[in-house]
User: Fold these one by one.
Assistant:
Number 1:
Amino acid sequence: MSINWFKYSSPQTFYPLAGKMIPWFAFLATIFAIAGLYISFAVAPTDFQQGEAYRIIFVHVPAAWMSMVIYIAMAGWAALGLALNARLSAMMAQALAPTGAIFTLLALVTGSLWGKPMWGAWWVWDARLTSELILLFLYLGFIALQSSIDDPRRADRAGALLALVGVVNVPIIYFSVKWWNTLHQGSSINMGAAPKMAATMLMGMLLMALAFWMYTVAVALMRVRCIMLERERSSDWVKALSVSTGEKL
Amino acid sequence: MNGVWITVLRRDLLLAFRRRSDVATTLFFFLIVSSLFPLGIGPEPAVLSSIAPGVLWVAALLAGMLSLTRLFATDFADGSLEQMLLAPQPLTLMVTAKVLAHWLVCGLPVVVLAPLIGLQYALQNDALFVLIISLLLGTPALSLIGAIGAALTLGVRGSGLLMALLVLPLYIPVLIFGAGAVAASQHGMSAQAHLSLLAACSLLALVLAPLATAAALRISVE
């Protein structure tokens, strides 16, 4: 039995599949978010050091995880698009970028909201904060480059190359910022030696991470459907779709 | 193989010599930017010498980046870039020659000028020496990484600002190690670790950046 691996690599076949997948991922995201938020706010115990303010980590930590995972996923799709010359991969990379940037921003904002009561400052030039900020710049660069090139083929490939260069640089940037931080700052804040987390707290965080993950898939699929329609607007299948649904595309 | 490298290098240096004002603009930009900081912050020697490593490095970085937008633009406009892409010799080799020419024309003068400005910032002898070494080791990485940005934004509208957005985040490690080396020597520590890392950045960029730049050029010109 041979499997056609490339069956869903064309926009025409992937468009309806994505449409069928979106409700499922959206449903899962909602379930996980409800469970995660319930555990985070109702079940998880109050932290004896940080009080109630610590509960922001249930949003903050998963958002920070997602910001990194999405960048890697984006670079992976971009590499696939460059290597196999597949249109859909490049569209996926383009669809993931805004969600990644939003999660990065969310991680930064929630981090500073948490930092004010804990450290007494909205912003600290901590290694993690700084590298998260630089990650936001990398996302913005990718989005800016793609949106300023009119030819979609060139925009895809230029963006893909930039994402790959970024992925090579991310570890270098992270370590340079970390060493810079240890040189300049005393040990006023020690984030490395966090106390052991209670099991319920970890559970809440994992559920929220799963919710964010599902949300990302659902939103990226929605966005990629829009990109497909926009780019393939003159192709036969989009025209046929527009006739069958009666909507003018 | 060597022939094309020498030819491209000689051609770019000759072109730069014929347009001497372009080189002068880069240098004056470096001078003016680094003279603005004392005017904004105040002439206190202690303050100036403590901000000097960062300010001089940022100024050198911006000067190099602004001049990089021209790296491929003129060749793209007059069609010689297309000939380079069509040539049977490897494009990466020609890219390396072009980047070296850019560094000799825009990077090296900044390195030579930097100690003069360092004196205005009340840097001591050791720190001045480390500043020169760090710029010598680090600015090639800036030119190499910047070339990727220049190739990606070739012929794109608003390419200058876009290039800044793409390239500046990638410059951060070089800035940290470069300014860190000078700061370490100011505090009486050894700058060797920073300088080694800086050299490592440049070597890594020398290996990878020309490949990425050549790929970006093919995407942009296609």
Number 2:
Amino acid sequence: MKHQYDVVIVGAGLSGLRAAIELGEGTRVAVLSKVFATRSHSGAAQGGIGAALGNEEEDNWEWHMFDTVKGSDYLGDQDAIEIMTRDAPKIVYELEHMGVPFNRTPEGRIAQRAFGGHTRDFGKAAIKRACFAADRTGRVILDTLWEKCLQRGIHFFNEFQLLSLIISDGWCCGLTAYELATGKIHVFNAKAVLLATGGAGKVFKTTSNAMASTGDGMAIAFRAGAPLEDMEFIQFHPTGIYKLGILISEAARGEGGILRNSAGERFMERYAPTIKDLAPRDMVSRCILKEVRAGRGIDGKDYVHLDLTHLGTEVIGEKLVEIIEFAQTYLGVDARKEPIPVQPTCHYMMGGIAADVDGRVVLDDDNTPFPGLYAAGECACVSVHGANRLGCNSLLDTLVFGRRSGIEMRRFIDANRFGDIPDGLENLEAAKIRALMEKDGTEKLGPIQQEMQTVMMNSVSVFRHKQGLEEALKTIRVLKERFHDIGVHDKGCCFNRELLDVLELQHMLDLAEVMTLGALHREESRGAHSREDFPDRDDRRFLAHTMASYQEQTRPRLFTKPVNITRFEPKERKY
Amino acid sequence: MRATFVIFRFDPAIDKRPRYQEYAIDVESTDKILDCLNRIRWELDPTLVYRASCSHGICGSDAMVINGHVGLACQKLVRDYKTANNFVIEPLPLFTVIKDLIVDMNPFFEKHRYVRPYLTSDEETPEKERVQSAAEQKVIEPALRCILCACCTSSCPISRANPNYLGPAALLRAFRYINDSRDTVTASRLAQLDNDDGAWGCKTMWWCTDVCPKGIPVTKCIGQIKRAIKLQEKHA
């Protein structure tokens, strides 16, 4: 089936929906999502969205900018961070106007709370900057934006899997997609395509991410010629529920929760004397694992306690409702009376498809645009998070750059014609799918996926070293070979979940290789990338973005892109 | 522990009518039902399908019937069931089955859309946020927990009897906007629900409240819509 839209957006999370709304009436917009729109993983965001509203205490965007730059370990592009932090209050007010039900201060303004790495006066003390709706901030923003899109009559293609981008003479002029319910191939002709496909946490064994977070957009853009940037920077959130990886929001510490080791000690006081438990996530995750390595994990195991028992029923009942339920449901732990067992869990990709501040996908270190192709949200790397993202900056990123992509695409579609779609694409894609389904493979999907997740967890997570990374790379390359022998047992065309799993695994293997290559290349420790064999930051060699581009028949090619530094010169990062 | 899962299967391309297939796997008492389904799919039968994504009860994808009770497969653990090693898994009732545990949710979302689920205000938009007191915000709080999983609507006896009835989920969304102090079209929202396919369809049977995986007092919220309608008529 063929379709034509001015803009096709892939992904119905916050960045995709925000862009769709910005494109507005008069533009023909389609939103594709591999899950039903409201199931998008933005909905799992708990804690809040950062903006210097100053509703609770004095604040300004420059402090927010400084915190973000410092949090990024000086790898974030400062022009982009300035745009994001300056736009932040406006973005939050717009959400409120659309109907987002934020919690309120006694004066009836949007309430704010403390979050990791957010400070007043360039690092002096923690500040209340996160605007929130209990601990379901992402969920209510997602619902509000989706409902706004319904009002606008935006056309949704739910349960459509992106297969490929259509590139003609170096321009992106559409995409092909697979309809899950029927197995039909759809060809979308578009003047502009926005990838808003989210993260890839499923590359790792323990993750807070949804089953759908398999990095499809990143991998497909990569194979279509768009470079991936800073893929070695992967955030491990310090407080995932022990063994399960389910997120316990940083808001728990923002509201006063404390991490304790087996001795009951508030160990973060030793590592970050100024802001303690509200240190940035990369640091807290490392500190937890250091405590575990020193034998101070609970019962000698690989977890610590998150103590909320002193917070009182008002805070817990009104601001941390969901996480209390998670602890009860999955652990049988009443967090009002006993601590929650936590350990780091793979949470967020700082890296992604290289994009500029207007959402344009870029091809090289000069930021040459890839015409017609855009990326926003977690699948993109603008880069506002650099080597480590601060909590409550991801919702902000999705909305600021979703909106800006919308504005830029609007300009682009007014100035350009539809590109020509080559004939026979539908058949070509259908033949590829058929070939996958008809193969009597000797390999099974499950073991390959598990092996990838295990090796990435063991060797490419919080702490890394050369030998482990080299072994991981070797394993991933073997898995990529074995992948070719996977067979699909389900031969049906109605909701063939197995086929989708195979497509997703291919994407994840591509990304795992690029992550590991980047981590090997970067012989320093910066932000979330911590090399035990290179424990210090090395600005002389590595104050630069790692770019990886796909090469047909050979290994990905790595090159670098300079970091944009405007206001804040790199300094040692202490909290 | 060894457990048996008897699962509803239906593939429109092959099956004339639904059938039940039995699988045996090793489970831990702390496993989620979703973990068990995933293991069956990965280890025993990749053709089994169901919807799932976030795996911790926030995206609303994996509502199904587990041992006769509607719930989220990712929120229910093996130990939550007395018959801990015998499970019967079936698709949500009320909706048409597409394949296995996947049902057609379109009618559900059409009703959602019908209640105009977006803030509507004829007041001028301020530069900053609109002022709303914490107390006003708290009124709609229960409804904000809704994840659109359809557990309530699929369990509702009235929804089963009257296909035109909006059902608890859509009414709950209406409640959310009726009671939002920032929304100014309350009267027309109430008028829209003043009939037997709307709020008066509810016969207070509490099934929706019983099954809600987010603990929302759905029936009470619908009751408040009814009271608001009465109050509006009185003042008219």
